[in-house]
Design goal:
Shape of chain A: globular
Strand content of chain A: 15-25%
Number of helices of chain B: 13
Structural class of chain B: mainly alpha
Distance between the termini of chain B: 63 Å
Strand content of chain B: under 5%
Radius of gyration of chain A: 24 Å
Oligomer: heterodimer
Helix content of chain B: over 70%
Number of helices of chain A: 18
Order of helices and strands of chain B: HHHHEEHHHHHHHHH
Number of strands of chain B: 2
Largest interface: A-B, 21 and 22 residues
Helix content of chain A: 25-40%
Shape of chain B: globular
Strand order of the largest sheet of chain A: 6-7-8-3-9-10
Chain lengths: 505, 302
């Protein structure tokens, strides 16, 4: 058998007491797509970052084309032909596609011949079936095209192994087929691809071999042809995939709570203006919002929570005009808000968990002082209700992991027993069990009569929770689906194109 | 009469615009690398003082010019160390540099107050407009200004160095991933910027005033910073901007010389009024064109 392009043996990596990785063997061969499958926190990213030189393993060896290597940094890995495409692209948005690719070329001359450079890059792009406007600034491209720029960059930088970290996370379902076509051409051209994913169907569809990780260990490596969904699920979840604690109860949908009347916003730099949004939300209802990243989800959430005001149209809350209400007034009126980036937009990082809990609440004031005992009690109760592990209440929020910050904000916002919950990507960065706890808590809130406006990147999550799903595209409503008419194809088509049939063709 | 005035104004705007252009081109390079230097005025003053000192002592205006360039690099060095290596706040460091420059230039220039400074040799090109004596004085620095703008534009857009410099100013994390040496690129950009600011000061002394006076650059360093934004960090637009701002300054002198009855204090405000009038219109588009990492100390891995 041919020597693998890269091979890891007996890798051990600890973070403090936590064993993040204990992997006997993992390798990628020429012209192979090797899927690294596992739920969040299973150790996939740690292993790939070890291969990419980002972490140094505490024990074990890595071989590139049969030779032992020791990477001190990603630069060493890249010099050995190991490239990685992260979820956050390392592109320079203001520079053109051409400049971005050229920047990473190791053999770029001091004074590049622009024409020769263009020919070389265009040829490589064409060979992989990538159509890209070479002179457009990367910022002007849709995310799917930016991802193609990342991949093209890796190829021209001379990488032989390309690690793709959850590459479909930023894409609409329709765009995924484009990505997998690119992956197939890379494979045909002899590259070794590591596809890091927690989605079974992607691994089954795109990979030659599938390695499943759980709790830092490699639990199985099998040929994709021989693998089945059930077999993979069993090794991923120790036999039992996380189940919802409560079966979806038939919720009593009550009186109208929030009404958006042809609302438009003005957007601004890096924002997608909302255009003519007509939307109603009733008590006890969970309304799901789907859309590819940057379609106006953040802006819609900000508008409803009062962080943004309508430029045109009206926002009614409980029958009254709330268009000009500040975020504070919306909050006092019973709106809980979990923004997309809780650390920046919902917490003060330098303050402790307890202080962040008390922030913006008037009920803890006692005379000129502050009733910290009550804050601590409330915080503990909120975490207990949410059913997730509680970080130390005295720790500054900035020192917490992303998942813990998410838990803090979620617990705080739900702990106020809000009438309306606006949650943008509330399960992002959470492990499967915490994510399920958050979903259950949202559903419980709705069954108690609150309305929930839920933005999610996972259509499955929306389908599981929402009574209704609307689709945002470029700041406009591009479709509405009621429970029973959900399908990945139909909603996905609305996410990218107005005409569902042409999208699916 | 009117044409004569226009011709005289144009001629004078070249002289006034040259120092603006040198400083603006330097600042463009620095800002493209992600560093805003509010101390340009201070560096210009040090350049002017050193140019006066050396030109007056040696009798050679060219040696004075060289001294201005070297002094600009030396004066910028502490600022560069603070912001590039120590991730210091760029605004505070720039203002410190400004006041350091005020003090240092006064100290260096003091013995030469009232001294005769040999001007840079020049040829006079008559303006093909109106009558009378309107002529552009073309000295070495004026003649080199346009080629310099071309050189800066080419460095930024046509070379690997420029590509890497722009990447550092836009997204230092990606630039690091691409193997760029941020420290070195920023030091290089700031060294060139210091040299050009020093030359800008030297031109004020040796090409316009022919004498040393405290604060003789009169805020040109600040106009240059505004000019960089106005020109959207583009070297060729900086040429146009320098002529425009130069004209504002020249018009003021010409109108006063022409006996127009406007308060000289009001006229002195002209270039700054123009700056303030134009800046709001660089607003949104200007922010989008600005290097994304401008003014942000880099605290990532290296």
């Amino acid at each position: 058998m041919a020597v693998p392009l890269i091979e890891a043996r007996n890798i051990l990596k600890r973070f403090g007491d936590l064993v993040a990785n204990e992997v006997e063997s993992f390798d990628v061969r020429t012209g192979e797509v090797h899927a690294l499958l596992g739920e969040n926190g299973a150790g996939k990213t740690t292993l790939s970052k070890i291969l990419y030189g980002f972490y140094r393993p505490d024990a074990g060896e890595i071989r590139v084309a049969g030779t032992n290597v020791s990477f001190a940094s990603p630069a060493d890995a890249r010099a050995a032909g190991i490239g990685m495409v992260f979820q956050e692209f390392s592109l320079v948005p203001a520079l053109s596609v051409l400049d971005n690719v050229a920047l990473f070329m190791p053999d770029l001359p001091r004074v590049p011949d622009r024409r020769a450079l263009r020919v070389r890059i265009a040829t490589a792009a064409k060979a992989l079936g990538l159509e890209l406007p070479l002179d457009a600034p990367v910022a002007a491209l849709p995310v799917a095209a930016q991802q193609k720029v990342e991949i093209l960059k890796q190829v021209l930088a001379g990488m032989r192994v390309i690690l793709l970290d959850e590459p479909t996370k930023v894409l609409a379902p329709q765009e995924c087929s484009g990505l997998f076509a690119t992956v197939a051409s890379l494979r045909a051209a002899g590259y070794g691809i590591v596809l890091i994913t927690h989605k079974l169907h992607e691994a089954l569809a795109a990979a030659d071999r599938i390695s499943v990780m759980r709790k830092g260990r490699m639990t199985a490596t099998l040929a994709a042809r021989a693998a089945t969904r059930e077999a993979l699920l069993a090794v991923m979840f120790e036999g039992s995939p996380p189940q919802s604690a409560a079966a979806p109860a038939a919720q009593a949908i009550g009186a109208p709570l929030l009404q958006l009347d042809r609302v438009s916003t003005s957007g601004g730099a890096h924002a997608t203006p909302l255009q003519g949004i007509d939307l109603g939300l009733r008590e006890g209802e969970i309304l799901g919002v789907a859309g590819i990243a940057g379609s106006g989800q953040r802006e819609l959430g900000a508008l409803v929570a009062g962080h943004e005001r309508p430029r045109r149209g009206r926002k009614l809350f409980r029958g009254g005009d709330a268009s000009r209400w500040t975020a504070g007034r919306m909050r006092r009126a019973g709106v809980g808000f979990v923004p997309e980036n809780p650390l920046e937009a919902a917490c003060v990082g330098e303050l402790s968990v307890a202080e962040n809990f008390a922030l913006g609440e008037r009920r803890y004031a006692s005379g000129l002082g502050f009733n910290w005992t009550r804050v601590h009690d409330d915080a503990e109760a909120a975490f207990a209700r949410l059913g997730v592990a509680r970080p130390s209440l005295n720790a500054p929020v900035r020192t917490l992991s992303g998942g813990n910050v998410q838990r803090v904000v979620m617990a705080r916002e739900l702990g106020r027993a809000p009438r309306l919950v606006v949650a943008i990507y509330p399960t992002r960065g959470l492990d499967a069990r915490s994510a399920q706890a958050v979903r259950d808590a949202l559903r419980a809130r709705a069954s108690e009569g609150a309305a929930v406006l839920l933005m999610s990147e996972e259509l499955e999550e929306l389908f599981e929770l929402a009574d209704r799903v609307v689709v945002l595209r470029s700041g406009m409503l591009a479709g509405e689906f009621s429970r029973g008419s959900y399908s990945i194809e139909a909603v996905g088509a609305a996410m990218v194109q107005s005409d569902a049939r042409t999208a699916l063709a | 009469m009117t044409w004569t005035l226009v011709a005289a104004t144009l001629a004078a705007s070249v002289a006034a615009g040259t120092s603006l252009l040198y400083a603006a081109l330097g600042e463009t390079l620095g800002e493209r690398a992600g560093i805003i230097n509010l101390g340009v005025e201070g560096v210009m003053l040090v350049g002017a003082a050193c140019a006066c000192a050396v030109a007056s002592s040696t009798g050679s205006p060219y040696l004075g010019m060289l001294a201005g360039a070297v002094a600009g690099v030396v004066a910028s060095a502490p600022f560069a160390y603070a912001v590039v290596d120590r991730a210091a706040n760029q605004l505070a460091s720039g203002l410190s540099l400004l006041f350091l420059g005020f003090g240092a230039s006064a100290l260096i220039g003091n013995p030469f107050v009232g001294a005769l400074i040999p001007p840079l040799p020049s040829v006079s090109l008559r303006m093909p407009l109106g009558e009378g004596a309107a002529a552009v004085r073309v000295d070495f620095l004026v003649a080199a200004a346009l080629p310099l703008a071309g050189l800066v534009a080419w460095l930024l857009m046509g070379t690997r160095w420029g590509l890497r410099l722009r990447a550092v100013g836009e997204n230092p994390v990606a630039a690091f991933a691409a193997g760029c040496n941020r420290r070195r690129l920023q030091y290089e950009a700031l060294a060139i910027a210091g040299m050009l600011s020093g030359l800008a000061g030297a031109h004020v002394a040796l090409g316009v005033a022919y004498t040393w006076a405290e604060f003789m650059t009169g805020g040109r360093g600040f106009i240059a910073i505004a000019l960089v934004m106005f020109a959207r960090w583009n070297a060729w637009w900086a040429v146009a901007g320098a002529l425009l701002f130069g004209a504002a300054e020249a018009a003021q002198l010409q109108l006063q010389a022409g006996g127009v009855d406007v308060s000289p204090f009001l006229m002195n405000m002209a270039p700054y009024l123009l700056t303030l009038a134009l800046l709001p219109f660089t607003g949104k588009a200007g922010r989008l064109a600005a290097p994304a990492a401008l003014g942000r100390p880099y605290r990532g891995v290296e």
